[in-house]
Amino acid sequence: MLFRSQYGPTGNVAWIYRHFPLDKPDANGNILHKNAGHEAQSMECAADVGGNDKFWAFEKKLYETTPSVTGATPNGLDQTQLPVIAKAVGIDVTAFNDCLGSGKFSDAVEKEYLTGVNAGVSGTPTSFIVLNKPAGQALNNYIGEALISYKIPSQLLYVSSDMKTIAMSGALPKELITGLITAIQNN
Q1: What is the pLDDT of residues 135-148, one digit of tens each?
Q2: pTM score of the predicted model
Q3: How far apart are CA 92 and CA 99, in angstroms?
Q4: What is the mean pLDDT of residues 161-180?
Q5: Strand, helix or coil at 161?
Q6: Measured between alpha carbons, how far is 6 from 111 in angstroms, rounded to an integer?
Q7: What is the spatial distance between Cα 119 and Cα 23, in angstroms, rounded to a whole number?
Q8: Neighbours of 77 (CB within 10 A)
Q9: Element housing 37 (H / E)
Q10: Least-confidence region, from 28-32, 134-138, 163-167
Q11: Sign of dihedral through CA atoms 58, 60, 168, 170?
Q12: Contact by Cβ (8 Å): 170, 156
């Protein structure tokens, strides 16, 4: 996590992870990632059993290991690999399996999903930058330029009407986000 390691230690940025599992049927009844909710719970179990550092280690290894959901791999990751990932990052596998098997975090993951829906999230990843004062003209100028130069549709990068929240939907280029942070710092 480049941005977390670069900006988080200064105390100026807090990175808060929220789950938005795409395991619900869409308007046509299709489910994009049927195991997403279970995998979100596994991440919470990694944190519960191993702490914050193990959460991030598990999250990184999970995303490195999980194949894209495609016609060839419609189920994504074989769920029997979750304990293997836990073990690989140094988590007590018995405690991890007990946690995951209990469904301890199913309600919490569902609540995060619903909070995302209510915040306007429609896909992953979605990131919000919440400012403690309204953004200035430098940020507006940068966003306008970024939308054009990176050919980003305006619905993927936008600022709230009170100019305190920036929403980014999708995996945007690292350079765009770095420029965004610089523009915020220059306000």
Answers
A1: 888 888 888 888 88
A2: 0.79
A3: 11
A4: 85
A5: coil
A6: 30
A7: 18
A8: 21
A9: helix 36-50
A10: 134-138
A11: negative
A12: yes
Question: Which pLDDT score is estimated for 107?
Answer: 97
Which residue in the block uniquely carries the two structure tokens 């929220």? Answer: 18
Q: Please tell me the distance from the alpha carbon of residue 113 to that of residue 107, in angstroms, as a whole number.
A: 10
Structure tokens at 93: 């596998």
Of 28, 22, 27, 1, the C-alpha closest to 13 is 1
Q: Return the pLDDT at 7.
A: 65
Rounded mean pLDDT of 4-24? 76
DSSP states along 66-132: PPP--SSSTT-S-GGGHHHHHHHTT--HHHHHHHHHHTTTHHHHHHHHHHHHHTT--SSSEEEEE-S
> Among candidates 100, 96, 62, 64, which has minimal Cα distance to 81?
62
